Each structure stands twice: as structure tokens, then as C-alpha cells.
Amino acid sequence: MTAYLIRNVSVVGGAPTDLLIRDGVVAETGAGLTAPDATVLDATGLVALPGLVDLHTHLREPGREDAETVESGSRAAALGGYTAVCAMANTSPVADTAGVVEQVWRLGREAGLVDVQPIGAVTVGLAGERLAELGAMADSAARVRIFSDDGHCVADPKLMRRALEYVKAFDGVVAQHAEEPRLTEGAQMHEGEVSTRLGLTGWPAVAEEAIIARDVLLAEHVGSRLHICHVSTAGSVEVLRHAKARGVKVTAEVTPHHLLLTDEKATTYDPVYKVNPPLRTAADVAALRAALAEGVIDIVATDHAPHAVEDKECEWAYARPGMLGLETALSIALDVLGPQWDLIAERMSRAPARIAGLDSHGLDPAPGVPANLTLVDPAARRVIEPAELASRSRNTPYARMTLPGRIVATFLRGEPTVLDGKAVK
Description:
- The structure is a single chain.
- The chain folds into two domains: 4-47 and 367-423, Roll (Urease, subunit C, domain 1); 52-356, Alpha-Beta Barrel (TIM Barrel), CATH 3.20.20.140.
- The protein has helices at residues 70-79, 98-111, 134-139, 157-168, 193-198, 205-222, 234-245, 256-260, 282-294, 309-312, 329-337, 341-356; strands spanning 4-11, 16-22, 25-30, 39-42, 47-50, 52-57, 82-87, 115-118, 146-147, 173-176, 189-190, 202-203, 225-228, 250-254, 299-300, 373-383, 402-412, 415-419, 422-423.
- The model has no long low-confidence stretch (mean pLDDT 98).
- Helix content is 29%, strand content 22%.
- Strands 1, 2, 3, 4, 5, 16, 17, 18 and 19 form a nine-stranded mixed beta sheet that branches.
- α1 crosses α2 (98-111) and α4 packs across α6 (205-222).
- The chain contains twelve helices and 19 strands.
- β9 (146-147), α4 (157-168) and β10 (173-176) form a beta-alpha-beta unit.
- The chain is an alpha/beta fold.
């Protein structure tokens, strides 16, 4: 294993120092380090962050390898500064058994670019009718701890309660896609002024807020851990604030696109802006940004959702919802939060690692800590060119936008997965 001496790097925004990486860990830190056997990297002007952790990634394998594979998604993640991603269960077949989650986990290990932690389905086939093999997935080699029917809401309150009770036995967490389906039937975008103007069926904010309110009450009653996926409304923020003040064990995520884009994008009828939950209003975006800074929303999660060309380049009504996110998430966070490095590290690495139970991730570079880290050039600006993305898909809403920040290097257990902004393998 090659040793690396990273010189003059700012660790989470601190004063420049040196980092010596050896045998998979940060062996030493301090000014003026020497290591004759180490490969030296000049990191002057760069910031070292704990490797980013994504709690919400769609890797599509097995079943839709035309849109993404575990390997291509892992490469995109590494280029985005990630060292661990949690892969959602809506594959084909669905990741609702120990066999499927172990398959995804092993594919991640074979790719060797990031740690791929599978998320198991809550219900069989995501059908919302009976619980999947939660215990078997938890006991499998993949050690699943997060369960979600993302893309579908666990709408039955009795079933949701049972899931929360079940995962409590092994300190698991249920991640809910909060959407009351009876309020969103046929919905094409956010319900509001723009949807009225365009004549498109609206997805009302209350469809999200009602499920979150119900589920925080269930989590409080059971005493179990609940995580809310892709929060998108100001009303949801208030429900979460109230729940946290009551001591409910609830965490929440917001996506980069919900922090930056609004429902006005739908006026273009470009299906790249179709997503679930939909882009909301400027007031919602402002509330989400404030909640993220405050900590009412715990983390940024990408909801990286690659789609094949035929599923996106079609009429708005027939397009699949979802956007790419892994390779641009840190840039969006920088654009929204500014260079608040400790806050970015907390929201994009430490907190998601804690929620997922990934003990070797989310740790600031320090002696003895696993060398899972990323080096960022905060002064760089880059134009997003879809053809240059590592994902197999091209459905990025940031095409040809100029965004701040550039990932220069990513290390997974001391081995570089990205150097000089390029994937090592």
C-alpha cells in the first residue's frame, strides 16, 4: 500500500498542515512532516474534508444497468468526493431479501471506489402490503440498517408502526418517502401558482407534511428511529422542528436540487426538472436552506436518480422523475452555504455516517483515523458538461451551469480513487 504525504492542506477549514497517510489510516499530522517513501501531494489552497457520505443514492443495479451500474455510480460518487453511499432498494428485483442486498454489497466491494451500503425495502416488492425480510437483511453480510420503500410511501400506518417496532431491535432506521398517495394521484409538479398557469395537475405540499406528522407521532409512540427522505416544503420543516423539540428520534435530509431550484423551472417543460417530490416555491427553498443551517434538517442527500435517455427525453407527462446528483452535490452545498467547512462536513459526512451506522466514515482527518477523505479546491469554478459526467445517464439539471469548487482527490482507506480530479480506475 502506497503512503501519501499531503502537504499544506487545510483540514476542515483550519490552518494549513501536513497529513501522512499510511496503511489505510492517517498516521500523522503536523507542519513539516517528512516521509521519504511517501508520494507527495502539494495541497496548497485545498481543503481536506472527511469523505462525503450519501444516504440516498439510486444505483439501478440489478435491473436497469442501462441507466447506471454499481461501478459507474461508484465512480460518479468518488468524483463527487464521496467515500460511502447508501444504495436505495428500488432495483429489479427489489432489494427486499438478504440475497439481493448482498449482491449489491458485493458489487460495491468489487468496484472498490466507495463503500456501497445497501438499503433494504420495508415491504415486499415495495408494494406496501407486508413487511420484507428486515431481520434477514440486517443479519446478512451487508448488515443493512436503513430500510426504505423510496419512490413509494409506506402509506399504511399499521404497517409503518410494525416496521418501526421491528427495526428498533437492531437500532435500525426506517427512511420514509413522505407522500400521501391519495393526494398526489396524477400529479405532475408542485401544486401552486405555476401549476395552475401551466394546467398541470399539482402535488400539494400537504401530501408530504401529513405523512411526516403521522410518522413522527408513530416514531415517538414506538421509541424508534425515523428518517425523512428529501424534505421539500416549509411546512415539513415546521413539523420536524416541533418533533425534534419533543425529543422524537427523527432525522431528515434535503437534496441539492431542492436547495437551489424552484417550480418555475417547469415552465420550460424540460423533463430534466421533473422530480419526486417536485421542485417547490422560492419560499420553500428559503425555508429549507435556513433549516439546513439550523440543523432542523440534518443532512444533504443527493437522491441521485439516473435515467436512460428514453425515460427522460420525452413528453413531460411520460418522463420518469429524478435527477443526477453525486458529481455536483458539494458544489451546490458550497453555492448555498458558502465555505462553511465545518457545517458542510457535518451535513455531508459526519451526520449521514452516524445515521447509517458507518463507523469508519464521517471522521475528520486525524492520527489513527481511517483515511477516508476528500480534497477540495474551493477557488475553482467549473462548467457542468453532461457528456463529461461519469454516470451512465445525463439527466443533470445543472448542465452548462458554472458551479463553485472542484474535487481534486478522494481517498478510500488510504487508497486514492480520484487524483487531480480524475478517477484512478
